[in-house]
Fold each of these.
Amino acid sequence: MEPFHAFLTHTCGHCRTPLLRLGLSENNDIVVCPVCLKAGAFDEVLEEGVELSDGYDVSDDTKRLVRRLWAERAAP
Amino acid sequence: MTYIVKPRLRHPALPVNKLGFTHRDYEGTVSTLCAGCGHDSISAAIIQACFELAIEPHRVAKLSGIGCSSKTPTYFLGQSHGFNSVHGRMPSVLTGANLANKDLIYLGVSGDGDSASIGLGQFVHCIRRGVNMVYITENNGVYGLTKGQFSATADKGSKSKGGASNMDTALDLASMALMVGASFVGRSFSGDKEQMVPLIMAAMRHPGPAFIDIVSPCVAFNNHAGSTKAYDFVRAHNEAVNSLDIMEPRNPITVEYAPGTTEEVALHDGSTLRLAKLDASYDPHDRIMAMAYLQAKAAKGEFVTGLIYMDRQAGDLHANLGTVDAPLNSLSEKELCPGAKALDGFNTSHR
Ligand SMILES: Cc1ncc(C[n+]2csc(CCOP(=O)(O)OP(=O)(O)O)c2C)c(N)n1
Ligand code: SF4
Ligand SMILES: [Mg+2]
Ligand SMILES: [Zn+2]
């Protein structure tokens, strides 16, 4: 599988930042808000309208990856 | 499919078309695709084309297969009919719907995987049967939804994001559509809205099988150096043969072209398609020339876009089958089952 990280057109319902989609394994994509770090399962959030939550299990490594990708994107 | 609905606020100064609809009336829900995905630009072009044609949304049926591209009908024409079918099977579902009700405008939206890989048989048969439709492939050379495997339209030698080379020969859907009898063939690029919108408008007014192949980069898996479906590559190799303009009967002609450089084609609803020729030798009504031209340019690494072919005498499946004028789904039981005597007569006529 290719590494898969992509910002979406869709924005965070809390802070309006473009959401980040992360492919962590073959069938397990999550979406994370790069600013408030709320997260959820890709399909549940985008197809079923489940809210992003603080309690969604995101590892510290993943959080670091999210911060780095957001900083790279925000850089000129 | 997707849950997130756009808020319905309408600014009083928003432009409206002759039906009084705004752009918003042709939109769908918020896209869940990656930011920058070419498919979202194609959705925007479809919205613009339907707005400009002032199509009544309930007269359109959108059909698709499976893929990121096939998800896009959720993001446009939210008030139209829609059916998201199975992978590679959109053409037969569309054919069935068209046979049942020929009064709708059929818009098939598919991907290169959906149409050139799993659905290739469906793609060619739907076109060779002459189904009256607009069939658009959003072509990125990969299976975007399943994370970037090469599709059958990936060029030989093009590189995946991970560096692997594609060793299989590419299928060119526009050439295949010409070969199997499409009476309208266009090619475009998702980064060129000015070209896409009139092409889609002309295809929607074409009374036969209209096919448009639109290269639509996948920013997540196929937009790197070494890919022939990346934004930079397509911009550098795009060779438009003509530029199009749709003129409504009521609109005066405002742009002047040098004699011999334009051609006007009457469309069957009274409007006119004006083609500005960018390559003076190119005749978009000559199917054999069109096929040879695509191949010759491809051999030089050029990617031809524009109106590739248009048959001015196009017919469709219903004309071939000799169906009655009324849509079949409007017939009553009495008309559909005219009784034993009529059936006997019909059987006798086939003996
Ligand atoms: C019968 C079947 N086989 C395989 C799949 C897995 N699958 C889903 S989408 C897809 C490819 C889609 O590629 P394409 O049509 O190019 O769409 P894109 O995502 O690139 O827009 C595949 C192989 C499936 N859904 N159904
Ligand atoms: S994976 Fe590729 S094709 Fe799918 S939405 Fe993202 S950019 Fe578009
Ligand atoms: Mg694809
Ligand atoms: Zn947020």
Amino acid sequence: MIAHPAAEFKESARSVAADRRHRSLIQKALGGYYTKRDEQITKFKSWSHAREAASAIKWDAVNHLDKYLEQFATRAEANGAKVHWASNGSEARKIILNILHEENVRRVIKSKCMTSEEIHLNEAMIEAGLEVVESDLGEFIVQLRKEPPYHFVFPAMHLTRDEVSEVFEKNLGSQPSESPEELTMIARGVMRKKYCEADAGISGANFAIAETGMISITENEGNARLTTSLPRIHIALLGIEKILPKLSDLALFLPLLATAGAGQPLTCYNSMISGPQRKGGGVSEPDGPEHLHIILLDNHRTRLLADPEQRDALHCIRCGACLNVCPIFKNVGGHTYGTTYQGPIGSVITPHFRGLQKWKHLSAASSLCGACTSACPVKIDIHHHLLHNRRNAAREKPLWWERAAYLLFAFFAKNHRLYYALLPIARIGRRLQGLFRALHLDPFFAWTGTRELPPMTEPSFREQWRKRKSVFTR
Amino acid sequence: MSRRADILKRVKNALSLPALWLGDTSHDGQGHGNSSVLTQMSHSTGQPREWLPVVGNSFQERIQLFEKNTQALKAGFYHCSGREEAHEILKQIGSREGWKKVASHRGELISPAAEALGIPILWTNDGYDIAELEVCDVGITGCDALIAQTGSVLVTACSAGGRAISVLPPHHVVIAREMDLLPDLPAAFELLEFRYGKSREGYPSFISFITGPSRTGDIERILVLGAHGPKELTILLVP
Ligand code: SF4
């Protein structure tokens, strides 16, 4: 039996938060990010206006999604791409497996595509007897370790070079190495062959341009460029919310994504692909795939779209900034979430995709500090959405003991005479509790196991006030 | 086809309730947005140039900014006095790195540079064998534009000999003209629209902004150049 996600979350959070090695690794990895990002932000004439404009463009795109999706599909097909629509993961998997089967594909190379993690595409392809290789270095490492990505932008952020070296030694038979450069070159060498042999390349997309029917892919390594250039089939899998209205919108979104996500002025490769290799019509291109298939995936995005209050969660461009600044993420680590999308934005959207009651605990795991909201390049009000999820969960399925507790509190709070009459008893109780503090006998153990209970003021405010007032009136 | 209709219908239904406008903080799910903010915002969405990083006005300032950016990106940049100087620099780099085979594409500016190296050339224009491109030490290509603001090179499948030549060989050399230097990203998208969007042939199937040599930080977030693409990017600017 699978444990409830909330129980797993608690268990894993407890152990990771106490793991000093994890903590220092994450601190070190993110330290450089903060400096570089802040340096980039100051180069903008106005970072805040840029964010506002981006959020306005996304608002327009998402709130007219039907119009833009139709436009995108029509243009893309006119460019020679084949557009497929999938309502959910199983449909998308079926479409992709069909294409691969019809085209006689045996080897698949993949560039980073979180949507494919969402629908467990790799497992399905491997089961169908295909060879599947992740080409993004971080994804490749976690694929070899048979674990999910730790962070949706930096998948192998939780590993040291020694661990990477060990994985390569075991799986690729390479010599151990202490140098990130050497390790990267080992992966490069392995991957070179795979690109040239692969029959099909599968990619995601960061943006889909309605105006021109293009997909835009952002990456640093060049693996997505190779994946989409060398194999004879290119399949792009993307969520329907990736739409941007105009090609020129990228002039804003590309630098915003690079700065917020990794503190870069621009990511190394920003490629816009509008179709397969072009031949004829006055244009003849030397290379590129014979076919481009674009799969537009819903998979519960319309459920989130139908909630006008939280619709803007679909503005997300998956930059990862909210993870990088989140104190909870840094303490509990990416794997603790147990979701495809980790961190604050994952906590907001996962309940919509996979069930509110089962995933509401993620929204409770927040200090509501708002660091995510202020980091978000498209200004999603992330921490308020966590509150919305909490409220919706309580509304949908109230907990009897929570309600009883609040009713009781309301009763005492309204009867202040009774309240003050009981205060001395509460004080005695509080002292008694001190004897058991942080022991399992303590009724507040869930809290006091790791924290101090706030003290009760003595004398209370009311008592102090009464004394002072008598001084004034005298 | 029916899936398309299904999904579009779901989208349409989902949108039947209007969303809060941005910045509307009445978190009760009832508000319908503040239209004065809407008009104000849609006004401001026209000109990203106003908020993106600063670019100078003169050619000199832009060249300096481009050079500074390429340095930060660890790309090579040479502002040459003429084509002969560019060919000379190419030969020097070639003999230093021991190039044995070059990939290039035909073009008035590009072919003479590739030929000046005096080593075997793979021309990609009319199609080529991937295995042959894989053993080339360098890809020499043209470009559509350079972007001062970001230090980027704008290439397309048309202007730069296809998709793979600028990413598969370990060294990518770009030869550009001074007039190809654009101030910023908005200008680059204007150029794309003008050059391809409005033409009868339309956009090339592949367009890319290349910003420095290929890189990764996937191991302990330490920067390593040459992840899957070229380890070196050299830009030669000629009059
Ligand atoms: S919610 Fe905002 S900060 Fe978080 S990944 Fe999405 S765009 Fe980035």
